[in-house]
Design goal:
Strand content: 15-25%
Number of strands: 16
Helix content: 25-40%
Largest sheet: 8 strands, mixed
CATH topology of one domain: Rossmann fold
Shape: globular
Distance between the termini: 38 Å
Structural class: alpha+beta
CATH architecture of one domain: 3-Layer(aba) Sandwich
Length: 429
């Protein structure tokens, strides 16, 4: 539908990129699309309901074997000839970590893609990443590890409520709970530390969901932490890096989200030197390559950013073009290939960006959403979205007749999400 440029057609040294995604997140497909536009050859190891499977810019899609997720990754790497790996979520990053531990021959590929192996254990643990940030002089939200039930009755319970409980290995707001008293702390601690039951995974497997046991794998060695809840406005930053050096970054405050602890729906691009400094310090200390993201809370009292989370993979902003700047995917592509960086974004691009363009259709009278631009600039329309619309009748029939889990997200696409708005002092909203 959108043929690659003539330059991309003639390019014989195009990098082969394998996208690894265990969740059906739209932004992963859009980021892959940006790399494809620059001439990369894209393959994907992904969930059954991922839009990557419907996108024309993906050459080949591979599936996870529920009993051998690591073998699935190895096979996808070998068959695709991947030169770079692109983790789309925390479980995908954890899978790459385990790959290096069990098969050292892949160490070079993984380190070239996401950074130094010595930092993997730190990046997979929320408490350790924040402790490293605090050591570097970055302002963080106070965080305590919860290693056992005694910790729940100790330092965490002594904190002022409300608190935010977070489980390692979770993404997109999953594995996160806000607790407002000691009783709720104990109850949520017990819930979050449970692994999915075998019977639950077997039911998913019988529903032809090959991702049935991957989440259980991701919880191996995972921990819990309790974090003070900073009252204010969420903010996010994403960086493209190479061997600990930041190539470029984006920062934004969140104007609306899918819920108080859920992913952003509408953001306002901004620049904050403190957030930039935090990214540069962590990238250098942990020798990160590829993408990583930082989540902050902007204090409603002082406006200062408090770091609350480090994401060792791409987040929502890697493909976004901004006025006068090259998108992060373009910066990383230029580093990989040694070619000049792509053209910067048009100066007319606005600073308010709406993820999920369908949100504007659902809330046609919302002035905030009407002022926002789509996160895809120019002709970067997601092929998968058009395919989904054309196949909606067929998909509904398949879901009704077979109950395939692979199509579950398409049936829910028409439901309006929860919208949580944040007050932004001085931003005009």
């Amino acid at each position: 539908m959108f043929p690659p440029s003539q330059e991309a057609d003639l390019r014989t040294d195009a990098p082969a990129v394998l996208v690894v995604s265990t969740h059906a997140w739209t932004q992963v497909s859009r980021l892959a699309f940006r790399f494809w536009k620059y001439g990369c050859r894209i393959s994907a190891l992904c969930a059954p309901d991922s839009e990557l499977r419907l996108a024309m810019h993906v050459d080949t899609c591979y599936s996870f074997l529920p009993w051998d997720s690591l073998g699935s990754l190895r096979a996808a790497i070998e068959q695709s000839g991947a030169e770079y790996l692109l983790p789309g979520d925390d479980l995908a990053f954890a899978l790459m970590h385990k790959l290096v531990v069990k098969y050292p021959a892949y160490k070079g590929l993984v380190e070239r893609s996401v950074g130094a192996e010595r930092s993997f254990d730190i990046l997979r643990n929320r408490y350790r990443t924040l402790a490293e940030a605090e050591r570097l002089g970055i302002r963080i939200a106070r965080t305590h590890p919860l290693r056992c039930g005694e910790d729940v009755e100790g330092p965490a319970a002594a904190e002022r409520f409300p608190l935010v409980l977070k489980r390692d290995g979770s993404s997109g707001g999953r594995g996160v709970a806000i607790v407002r008293d000691a009783a709720e702390l104990r109850a949520q601690y017990a819930r979050l530390r449970l692994r999915p039951r075998l019977t639950f995974n077997l039911r998913r497997l019988l529903a032809l969901d090959p991702m049935a046991f991957v989440e259980s794998f991701g919880m191996e060695g995972s921990g819990l932490c309790a974090q003070e809840k900073i009252e204010g406005v969420p903010a996010t930053a994403m960086f493209a890096c190479w061997q600990g050096r930041v190539l470029g970054g984006l920062q934004a405050r969140v104007l609306a989200s899918q819920g108080e602890t859920k992913p952003a729906m509408v953001i306002q691009l901004m620049r904050d030197e403190r957030m930039e400094r935090a990214g540069a310090l962590l990238a250098e200390s942990l020798e990160i390559s590829g993408f990583f993201g930082l989540d902050f809370m902007l204090s409603e009292v002082t406006g200062d950013p408090y770091l609350i989370e480090v994401n060792p993979r791409s987040t929502q902003m890697g493909h976004i073009q901004t006025a006068g700047h090259v998108d992060l995917a373009g910066l990383l592509w230029a580093q990989w290939t040694g070619r000049p960086a792509p053209e910067p974004g048009d100066e007319r691009l606005g600073k308010v960006v709406a993820f999920y363009p369908f949100v504007r259709e659902r809330f046609p009278r919302n002035k905030l959403l009407m002022m926002a631009r789509s996160d895809i600039a120019g002709d970067d329309l997601l092929v998968g979205n058009r395919v989904l619309r054309r196949q909606s009748a067929l998909v509904k029939w398949l879901r009704r007749k077979t109950g395939w889990a692979a199509f579950k997200h398409l049936g829910s696409a028409r439901r309006s999400p929860e919208v949580h708005y944040f007050k932004n002092a001085g931003s005009g909203y």
